Structures are given as C-alpha cells and as structure tokens.
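In pairs, describe these two lines:
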Amino acid sequence: LDLAPTILSAAGVQPPLEMMGRDMSDLYLQEDVNWRTEFLYEHPKHGGHIPASEALVRKDYKYLFWPDYKLEQLFDIKNDPYEERDIVNETEHRHVLNEMRTRFIELRETVHDMSKIVTV
C-alpha cells in the first residue's frame, strides 16, 4: 500500500491525490510522525480452496470477516498472537467487537468508494 507513494516521492514525483497509501520515508526522516494505528485488508477468493477474507487489524486486536460464510471472528493478538482462541462470542469483549465491526464497515465503504475513482 505504501510502496508506490514512497517510490514516487523518492523519484521527486508527487503521488496522485487518489492514490492510497503514504510515503514511508516520513517514518525515518521525521520525528513524532502521526502514522496509522490500524489497517484493513481484503483477500479475494483464490481458486476453490482459499475463501475470501477481510480484516481490520490493530496492535492488540484483529477483527476478521469471512464474506462467503457471513462469519465474524475476533482475536486478542496481544495475548493470543497465533490466533488460536476466537473471542467473538465472549461478552467481556463485546465493546471491542462492536467498535471494530463499526470501524471495519467504515473503512471498507471508504475503500470501495475510492475504487470507483477512474483516472486517465
């Protein structure tokens, strides 16, 4: 995501406004950089064996959505880095689930809206 804007910036070319991602050189050329604390990923269905998946990932939690199955998962990746224990149904994590689900939907809608942009 950030590779193309970084390469363009290194070449002295201003990345287009509609390009997603940021110039990573900010991380080593500046102090106290305001950088993202979460990211959205989408993995399309691949062949007949790997189902589509989408996720919102943060330092402490990962919210997964499996669109083919309408299935949600939530992992506490700080305490369960191998994602062995799905906590989506645990009531003590309900607030995390609701917040991450809402943010996931917001980011997904933003990405899908941006994908409609056509440039020449």
Remarks:
- The longest strand covers residues 38-43.
- Helices lie at 3-10, 26-29, 94-114.
- The chain has a mean pLDDT of 88.
